[in-house]
Amino acid sequence: MEQMWSACHPKSDEELAECAALGKSLNRLSQPTILTILAANDKPMHGYIIVQQAADSPMFGGKKPDATGVYRALKRMEEAELVTSWWDTPDEGSAKRMFELTEKGRLCLRRWIDALACYKMTIEELRRYASTALGIEVPPTPLCVQPQDDTLADEQRVLNEGSRKVNVDPHGIG
């Protein structure tokens, strides 16, 4: 399981560059992440706390998300009445924006739970389709990171050889 965690949640920009399409840039999934954080805390939260907790969520896997992107998502969610916000202006220190989940936001999160299940089924179907297209078995774990054992290294080598074969013109014309 550790290898899947590493492959699905790159810990550095270098790891992300190895397989940039891992989905960590799917900004649509920031909405259920933020809604979940607000629902789990069940109290108003400062935006920077949401950003910090998002880093620990399955979506971001320890890598701090872009705070500007989180605040943009919160603004869109407020416009959709999924969250409410106000300024907390303490006697000392700077003002901070507070965010709270609305009932509409809770209903939206419930719909996300079903949508994510559908995404999971669709992604598994796409994995099978892509594996079939490459003529390989569906791998048990992602191959976006350096393989950790000989079996995965062999699969990676076969995959690389297969992609080279696809690009070779058997008639020597191109």
Tell me the layout of helices and strands.
Elements: H1 2-8, H2 13-18, H3 30-41, E1 45-46, H4 47-55, H5 67-79, E2 83-88, E3 96-101, H6 103-134, H7 150-167
Antiparallel strand pairs: 1-3, 2-3
Helix pairs in contact: 3-6
Main attributes?
174 residues, mainly alpha, Arc Repressor Mutant, subunit A, three-stranded antiparallel beta sheet, 7 helices, 56% helix, elongated, disordered N terminus, disordered C terminus
Explain this structure.
With 174 residues, the chain is mainly alpha-helical. It has a single domain, classed as Arc Repressor Mutant, subunit A. Helices cover 56% and strands 8% of the residues. The chain contains 7 helices and 3 strands. It has a 3-stranded antiparallel sheet. The radius of gyration is 21 Å and the shape is elongated. The model is unreliable at 1-7, 19-25 and 162-174 (pLDDT under 50).
Question: What does this entry show, briefly?
Answer:
56% of the residues lie in helices and 8% in strands.
